[in-house]
Amino acid sequence: MRQVYINGEFKKEDEAKVSIFDRGLLFSDSVYEVTSVINSKLIDFKYHVERLDRSMNELKFKTLIDHDEILAFHRKLIDLNNLKEGMIYTQVTRGVVDRSFDMPKQAIKPTVLAFTQEKKILESDTAKNGIKVMTLEDMRWKRNDIKTTQLLYASMAKSEATAKGFDDAWMLRQGYVTEGSSNNVWIIRSKNIMTRQSDNLILSGITRAVVLECAKKLDYEVITKNFTKVDAESADEAFMTSSTGLITPVIKINSSQIGDGKPGNFTKSLRAEYIKRVLEIAI
Ligand code: PDD
User: Fold this and answer.
1) pLDDT digit string, tens, across residues 213-242
2) Residue 158 has pLDDT above 90, yes or no
3) pLDDT digit string (tens) for 17-73?
4) Is the CB of 184 under 6 A from ligand 1?
5) How high is the pLDDT of residue 92?
6) Which of 28, 150, 198, 251 is deepest in the core (most CB within 10 A)?
7) Number of C-alpha atoms within 13 angstroms, CB side, residue 98?
8) What mean pLDDT do residues 141-162 have?
9) Among 52, 203, 214, 270, residue to substitute to test ligand 1 (most atoms within 8 Å of Cβ)
10) 154 close to 162: Cβ distance less than 8 angstroms
């Protein structure tokens, strides 16, 4: 049984409790981060805690969580659960207060929880074989730049895709692809690597930022530009980025096969460069 973290304590997973009045539960008034773990080390940890602060600031949380404290419970969770490869999920809610749409004016104690989950990251089947995605309308709110736990539409979109035999959904706003259910989107056309611009309609992914650096290192030019469903369907290569998927090739979009239906060469070289880079600086 896993040991999880809750408000300063480590408990067996079936003993950790959250109040029914927690605003995270009642209003999704909470933010989260998912940090991947490879060889028992944290990948891009610093960027995750910085983004956690940003999300909390955007929602006007009054208390931030100390970064050293976050690092300490991450390390302890890896230790207690003997986690070699997978991820650590961390969630911070505004806290516990009587139910009201009006957010509390006074500072209340945030709820902080975290747990580990094992997952194959380096040698995953999806990295080896690629994934199939379908497009559907992006019906989420317009603050997807904040990493909140308000994830119902993303979860509905992913479920609709898997029910139809795809692996994920790429969401569309006014014909342009915004992002996947939990990842950023990229295509390659005539050697031009393109990823959607980062604004309020997508999460500015940490993997996305590091992959932009890796592309530079390989002398690949990346154009940060919105692209349409038609651009995506006729791409030479396509891939998605996220902390737990790293760079995952996309081999089919709707009914269109991408390239020769196998993970593309640019995608594979970017993935290799990304892995090399993050493992060097994992902590
Ligand atoms: N999701 N876009 C959305 C909507 C996401 O939920 C995520 C991450 C990303 C990629 O961000 P990053 O590279 O920082 O992981 C983009 C995580 C993995 C999750 O919810 O499980």
Assistant:
1) 999 999 898 999 999 999 999 999 999 999
2) yes
3) 999 999 999 999 999 999 999 999 999 999 999 999 999 999 999 999 999 999 999
4) yes
5) 98
6) 251
7) 1
8) 98
9) 203
10) no
Structural tokens at position 74: 């991450």
Q: Is the CB of 208 under 6 A from ligand 1?
A: yes
Mean pLDDT confidence for 195-217: 96
Match 């342009």 to its residue by tokens: 176
Give the per-residue pLDDT at 190: 86
Catalytic site includes residue 191: no
Is residue 283 packed enough to be buried (19+ CB in 10 Å), middle (13-18) or exposed (0-12)?
A: exposed
